[in-house]
Amino acid sequence: METPLGDFAHTPVLLAETVRLLDLSRGGLFVDCTVGLGGHARAILESRFAAKLVGIDRDRQALELAAERLQDLGERVQLVVGRFDQLEDRLAELGIDRASGIIADLGVSSMQLESAERGFSFMHQGPLDMRMGAGELTATDIVNDYPEKELSRIFHEFGEERHSRRIARAIVEARSEAPIETTGQLRDLVERAQPRPRRGPRRRSIHPATRTFQALRIEVNQELDQLRELLEQSVRMLERDGRLVVISYHSLEDRIVKHTLRDLATGEIEPITGRPRAESRVIEVLTRKPVRPTAEEVAANPRSRSARLRAARRL
Ligand SMILES: C[S@@+](CC[C@H](N)C(=O)[O-])C[C@H]1O[C@@H](n2cnc3c(N)ncnc32)[C@H](O)[C@@H]1O
User: What spacing in Å lies between the alpha carbon of 274 and ligand 1's midpoint?
Assistant: First the structure.
């Protein structure tokens, strides 16, 4: 049975840690670049310090739900549709050129994942879509039009899928008979394309289609390029002492966050001495290791299982 949109529950991940690392006691304007269903946004605004919040999301449907859910907070919250690469432009349109803190909770929301017609999940039968916002290619376009080599590269790079070539081959064979248009078709095809283990029962910790679906979602939404833009633009928007908090859900994302923050914290390298120029440091990293959810949080909210939070302070 379908869940009515308004009924989606979304438990915000690493909430207490997010609020602590944003250091709301400095007050001012906070930007939630992934407002989703408004969970983190509400917690920020319920602190007595954060004066205002701008909530951004590329998904109009999410913004409509967030607007309903945050209605009681009145004019302290402004919601805007936009992608990470439009962050500075969207804020400039609101007359904002500095923020006290910026948060991004990456990936998809439970609303997107659970809506069969959005096509994100192999657990639900639906059209192979996977767009978070409007206007981009759908997963159907990619699966039916990309050359075999390109599909294999995407599954390998974005899904870290060991059987990327076999899966790409199986897709190309299947689509020569008829287009692949549903989540169920792709799930079954990927399952059949993977080799069975030689001995013993099949033992996998994740469903065999997980990596292929993750890779397609990243390609459809250009998620890694978006993340690079988010980090670059956020750091430019932060006021001195402003905080950036990013929660990621897989190693590709976390690697980008970790390396970008490290480079910004090191600064430029002096060509003669090979030493970093201290005055060119842009941020201080506040999390030497990523913050992970506790066993209690994972038990209460399994979606938090793979979350890793990293935070920085603008110098
Ligand atoms: C995990 S959910 C956020 C949930 C939210 N923190 C809450 O507590 O309800 C991620 C949201 O980020 C949005 N999103 C992902 N990538 C984006 C991008 N590049 N630009 C704008 N929004 C994006 C998705 O549409 C989704 O609604």
Answer: 39
